[in-house]
Amino acid sequence: MNFKTIFKSFKNKDMRKRLLAVLGILVAYRILAHIPVPLGDTQTFKQAVDKLVNSTDLGGFINLISGGGLTNLSIILVGLSPYITASIVMQLLTKAIPRMEELSKDGETGRRKINQWTRIASVPLAVLQSIAYIFILFQSVVTESSTGTVTMTTENWILAVTAMTAGSALLMWLGELISEQGIGNGTSTIILCSIIASFPSTFASMLNQLFDTTDGSLSLFGWLNLPINPQMAGIMLALGIGLIIVLYFLVKINEAQRIVTINYAKRVHGNSAYGGIKSIMPIKLIAAGVVPVIFAVAFLSVPAFIGQLVQNADPTSEIGNNLVTWFSAPNGNPSQFDGLQGTDFIYPIVYFVLVVMFTYFYTSIVFNSQEIAENLQKQGGFIEGVRPGKTTERYFSRTVNRLNLFGSLALGLIAMLPYITDYIFIQTLGYPLGLSISGTGLLIVVTVALENIRQINSRALMVTYDDYQ
Prior knowledge:
By secondary structure, the chain is mainly alpha-helical. It folds into two domains: 1-197, SecY subunit domain (Preprotein translocase SecY subunit), CATH 1.10.3370.10; 229-435, Preprotein translocase SecY subunit, CATH 1.10.3370.10. It contains 18 helices and five strands. The strands form two sheets. The protein has a three-stranded antiparallel sheet with strand order 4-1-5. A two-stranded antiparallel sheet has the order 2-3. Helix 15 (369-378) crosses helix 16. The chain is globular and about 85 Å long.
């Protein structure tokens, strides 16, 4: 990575324009994150949201990738999840339906059609998710309300769903603007900005616990005269060291790849010779990225959602109470934490197993060994010591499965970091610290940041090419 070239590229007008476009769009996105959804009683709904974020892993994950849109009850509460879901579904359909697979191979025209279908499919998904979120929040408000007079009129429903759907569509458009007018993938950049936006609140929360504050808040320079909590100071020091180690580990596994050397046969056509060269094919350790974690969180949210519906219908139902208890994350509030129970280990264990399973499943979708082996055979490429065709296909399958064995376990361990740290804090503090940033969030930050730096470096080399002639 040549940072000297990157700084030199800032003199280029097009480079400055692209970077300023990204910055301006991100500022607009953060403004949208503070525009509230037009509901009847916003304050009451915000209290229900805070409880939802603290009590369920899905709520915390949604709040993380929406940049606080859930806790702010903003119009971008749904975020980019409908677009991401539609993209994943389209990828699966492309592999399952031959007609769509042919369309995906039809160059730029085919890809544009699939992208357009993805955008169209995102709208009804945004409507459905908006209705689901409002329904869950409304049920939580009714359950917690002592007066029982909280109501949602038809006009409130239509207005809220319309605002949240429009916010999701607007966010999708901003992401595409970044991809076209800026640098890097717009969707990934917005998610990166969302996660980074949660850092200040996490840091402030830890400072409040580091210093013995009586009102739970710190003024700008008020911390200078406050005594330090020695136990919390040691924990923060250990967290800082652990964070450096985790970031190093994340960078390594994100960049880890198996290099396969591809040989191309030498061909003679008339008086000219072609081929006879070597190339490389990198196979990433975690080819599926963070998609398995998203799948696992979404899958595990279903039992808790069903349990809430059963509880609302019959509060004494043992099935509903068990589903909510087994598939809810521990609460980080020390005043509400009632000790570590045996059932608290059910969610993390199932979570880990699902992450491993979905890593194998999604890798088989994005890395098609049969298709790659066929393309190599058509192009005259082969792996030394491996016969073209079925033997090459089995070689790729075996290689990817070996990488998946370690990659899936590493991804599952990253997803388990919040529960591991919570267990450590329970043993030291007596309650989980409840950090808002998870191992999955850190993995997204590392992956997107490295990719964006590579994109910036590539464009910097392009715009400064004439300087080296």
